[in-house]
Amino acid sequence: MSGGGAPPETTLPLYAAVLCAGAAAWLISGRDQDLRRARLLFAGSGAVGPARQAPRRRLAETVAGLRERWRTACGGRMGRELLCLPAGCVLALAGASVLPLLAGAAAVPVVGRWRRARTHDRERERRAAAVIELCGAVAGELRAGRQPVEALLAAPPGPIGEHWGLVSAAARFGGDVPEALRRAARAPGAEGLTGVAACWQVAVDEGAGLAAGLDRVAAALRAERDHRQHLRAKLAGPRATAVLLVLLPVFGLGMGAALGADPLHVLLHTPAGLACLLVGGLLEWAGFAWTARVIRTAADQGGRRGHGG
């Protein structure tokens, strides 16, 4: 009969294309909004742009508003991991199946968690480097003849953490500087401030040299950083193996398509292909989890040896 709804083969590509276009507009709306603000800033009393661009501006404003509401609701946790949705749409269109689209939607939180972990590690490394620079700067100011409070206020804190304002206030108004430093040390990567607080406490109570103590703290932190970098270099091989394990199925699909075997149709539309897809996905996940566990165990053991040494 011809009066029923559209067949799934027609509706699926349409829905996938709409979702792909929405995700792309979501990702580029921020840049369009910045361009619109720049035009408004430098346009003066003249027109901002031709009248035919008004619908495009309204669409960009609407998408930007929705994106801002999403960021407010979700705490700004969504970002480039949304590109998994267009990728899933492309595979869904190529294979005429909804499974790649569902897989792309399921990959969004996984990729987002991985990206947040990478961002957390980079911030941790920046804070650790900032603590080392702080120790060197304060020690230099002390040797130049400044008092401890003046030296601490003159040193640039860098991206140490949100509690550094408490340290500055305690130093400026006669508060408990060691306790403020211990609070600032709660930020990931700023744990070295605990040693700074101990040196400050000893210097104030017993009159010991603060500059020498800060030099020793900075030397210990540098040694720990060098150990982490050495361990990261040793684990580069297993990490490359994990990445290759993830990319191998993509290479296999591309090689099969180049040979004219149509692997997407076999995997998504035949019982044997679906069974192979399920078993292959489980084996892929098991191999990646095992490799990640090996890397994590080696990193933990190396970190304990570094702290013990």
Automatic annotation (TrEMBL):
Keyword Mitochondrion recorded: no
Annotated keywords: Cell membrane, Membrane, Transmembrane, Transmembrane helix
Annotated InterPro entries: T2SS_GspF_dom
Annotated transmembrane regions: 12-29, 240-260, 272-295
Ranges for domain Type II secretion system protein GspF: 138-255
Membrane topology field: Multi-pass membrane protein
Record localization: Cell membrane
Pfam family, one: T2SSF
Protein name: Type II secretion system F family protein
